[in-house]
UniProtKB/TrEMBL annotation:
It holds the Pfam family DctP. InterPro entries: DctP_fam, TRAP_DctP_sf. Keywords: Signal. This is TRAP-type C4-dicarboxylate transport system, periplasmic component. It comes from hydrothermal vent metagenome. GO terms for biological process: transmembrane transport. NCBIfam families: TRAP_S1.
Amino acid sequence: MIKQLKSLGLAFGLFLVAPTLFAQEVLNISSWAPPTHHMNAVVWPTWGKWVEEATEGRVTTKIEYKLASPLKQFELVRDGVADAAWIFHGYNTRYVATQAVEMPNLGTSAEAASVAYWRVHQKYLAKADEHRGVTLIGLTSHGPAVIQTKSALKDLGDLSGQKIRVPGGVGSLVGKALGVTAVKLPAPKVYEALSSGVADGIFMPMETQKSFRLKEVVPFVTIMPGGLYYGSFAFIMNSDFLAGLSEKDRAAVMSVSGEKLSKLSGQQWDAADTAGLAAAKEAGTTITTASADIHKKYLTIMAPVEAGWLERANKAGIDGKAALEELRAIARSY
C-alpha cells in the first residue's frame, strides 16, 4: 500500500513539473509588409523554423500583422508589445552609422551587401549603439534602388521638381541632391500615393514592381549602374524576452541569427528583385539603364552625400572611412 502511495505521489509530482519542463515559448513577430512579401513568406518563416529546430521545439514563432505602422516597430519591440520585428532605418533620423550600406554605387547583390553589412557593423558600427533598448539579431539591405516614374526620363535633370516618394536615410539625401519634391510616406502607402497623383514617381528596388504592384502605376524604370542607393533594415528582438529564455535557448536563438539571418534576407531580396524585373517586363514596363555619362554625373552629385556621412560617422566615434572601405571590399569580393 505504501509503495502504491509513493508511486502515485511520484506520478502527481511529475504531473506538476511537466508543464514547466515542456513549456513552449511563442515568439510573436510584428510585420508590416503584405503577407505575400518575401520577408513574411520566406525570411521570417525560415528563421522561425531554424529557431524551433535549434531550441528543440521549446521556442516557436508567430507572425502578427497591423500591430503598428512601420515607423513604430522599434517601440513596439522595445516595449514588449511584440517580441521581434524588422525595421527600416530610414524612417528614423537617429540612425547614422547604418547608412554605411546605403551609399550609392556599391554595385553588388543584396546578399553580398547584407553579409558585408553585418560583419562591418560588428567590427565598427556597433560602437554607435543605435539599437539600444532592443537586441539586434540581424541586418540586411535591399538590392540596388531604381528610379520608377510615370513619365520617361532623358536626364537626371528631368527629376527636378517632380513629386518623388523618398524613403528616408540616404535615399532621401539622393532625392534632395537631385532636386525632387520629396513625398515622405511608409512603403505600404506607395501604391495609393502613385495611383492618386500624390507622387509622380518613387525610389525603391526593382522587387516593388511586383511586391507592391508598382508595375500598375509607374510604367518607366531607370536603372542606375551600381545602384541608386541601397536600403538598410534591422531585425530586432525584445531584450527581456531573450533574457527570459534559458541560457541554452538564448544561445540557440542567437546561433541562427546574426550573419546567418542577414544572409538569408539578402538572398531573398535578390530573388524578389529577379521576380520584380520579370513582372515589370511582363507588364510592358519600359526599363532603361542610365548611360555612362549620366552615371558619372550622378556620382559627382552624390560625392558630398558620402563626405557628409563620413563626417557624421566620425563624430559618432566611428572610423567611417575604414568601415566604408571594408564594407565595399567584403561585398565586392563576396
